[in-house]
């Protein structure tokens, strides 16, 4: 148990920093790390992916709060965008969490692996959408928010790897897109965490300390470490060479996804 606690603290340090620095990455690191932790403490395989996703989303509530504050202080959050996209985000994420309750661990793992490879490829090749349009009206924002929320609920992320490219394609400056993405991640995390609590509420044989599909001991350990590191990462985003760091993160994603694929096969 001590090994698992230390692992959660280490994961929190890395995930919090990445979330603040890149606006993406927290959940993409937390989910595979939690799979290892759950294997360590003997969680049955059929529940591991659901618990990892639900717990990851719950941690982002706290990581996102720290990151948003730091980005807001630097004037890098478009609150008008956050207000417009949030209704669709909340609805899409909650519905996605309910659907995830009926998807087997095997297929949730497949979705995560494919998503991780896609994000890693985008980062390595520096594929960026051309900023050839403006942000859509309220209806369009909610449709986009619903899609982002749905996909985020299936992989346990705050949506940054989806919302940052979307905003960048709509002529939002990259640093502002990253800061706004951190704020958008909070309604995703809240709706997702609540959704996974509900979808896992009556599931039998969950490990002690679980609230639905949210494992509270891991949540506490990761949050204790990630909360302060998210502030550090957000501050560093305005000083460090983010493009180079994204390529390093992409390489890490490929390694994690490949390890998960190997285990799956």
UniProtKB/TrEMBL annotation:
It is found in: Cell membrane; Membrane. It holds the Pfam family TauE. It is a multi-pass membrane protein. The keyword Coiled coil does not apply. Its main location: membrane. It comes from the Bacteria. Keywords: Cell membrane, Membrane, Transmembrane, Transmembrane helix. The chain crosses the membrane at residues 7-38, 50-69, 81-100, 137-157, 177-201, 213-232. Belongs to the 4-toluene sulfonate uptake permease (TSUP) (TC 2.A.102) family. This is Probable membrane transporter protein. It comes from Deefgea tanakiae.
């Amino acid at each position: 148990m001590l090994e698992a606690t230390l692992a959660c603290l280490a994961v929190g340090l890395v995930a919090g920093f990445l979330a603040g620095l890149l606006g993406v990455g927290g959940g993409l690191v937390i989910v595979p790390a939690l799979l290892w932790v759950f294997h360590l403490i003997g969680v049955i395989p059929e529940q591991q992916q659901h618990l990892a996703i639900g717990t990851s989303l719950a941690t982002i509530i706290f990581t996102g709060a720290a990151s948003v504050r730091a980005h807001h202080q630097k004037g890098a959050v478009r609150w008008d965008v956050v207000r417009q996209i949030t209704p669709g985000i909340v609805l899409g994420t909650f519905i996605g969490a309910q659907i995830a309750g009926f998807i087997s661990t095997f297929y949730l793992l497949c979705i995560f692996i494919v998503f991780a490879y896609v994000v890693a490829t985008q980062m390595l090749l520096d594929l960026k959408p051309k900023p050839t349009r403006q942000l859509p009206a309220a209806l369009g924002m909610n449709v986009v928010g619903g899609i982002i929320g749905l996909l985020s609920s299936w992989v346990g992320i705050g949506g940054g790897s989806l919302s940052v490219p979307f905003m960048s394609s709509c002529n939002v400056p990259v640093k502002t897109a990253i800061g706004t993405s951190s704020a958008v991640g909070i309604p995703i995390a809240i709706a997702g965490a609540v959704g996974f609590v509900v979808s896992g509420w009556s599931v039998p044989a969950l490990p002690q300390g679980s609230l639905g599909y949210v494992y509270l001991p891991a949540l506490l350990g990761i949050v204790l470490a990630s909360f302060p590191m998210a502030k550090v990462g957000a501050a560093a985003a305005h000083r460090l060479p983010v493009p180079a760091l994204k390529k390093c993160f992409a390489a890490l994603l490929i390694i994690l996804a490949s390890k998960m694929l190997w285990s799956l096969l």
